[in-house]
TrEMBL record:
PANTHER family: CONSERVED PROTEIN, HTH-TYPE TRANSCRIPTIONAL REGULATOR RV0880. Gene3D superfamilies: Winged helix-like DNA-binding domain superfamily/Winged helix DNA-binding domain. Keywords: DNA-binding, Transcription, Transcription regulation. Residues 8-136 form the HTH marR-type domain. The keyword Transcription regulation applies. This is MarR family transcriptional regulator.
Amino acid sequence: MPDLSSDASEIRSATFRLARRLRQQRAVKTMSDGQFAVLVALKLHGPHTLTTLAEREGVTAPSMNRTVNHLEEEGYLTRRPDEADRRKVNIEITESGRSVIDETVHRPDEWLARLLAEVPAEDRATLRDAARIILEVIER
């Protein structure tokens, strides 16, 4: 088997730098990946209790409470008493939180599209092929 460590390093470095530059395009620059993940989970899966949200994200309840407190202070989510069990509190995403997700998803695509507009069509086709190949390799 050939030594592919140099190829692996070059691909890892390029994808890492691209991922970092894409993250820099997020709507709220001060929002952590963990905070953004909580908003996405709430948008995709609906309201959660603090405990179920912590379990979904693989963190402790006190850690999730800090995250939820911060996101609530920023207006990205809200807490509402459970209709069936008033002892429970459900955490829900707000319209402002949905907007942050939508913009955070949209902005990196726009940024990358602007860069790709300056790349020759043949190279763009090569990049599309590379993206497809990378996904095939990592999904094996």
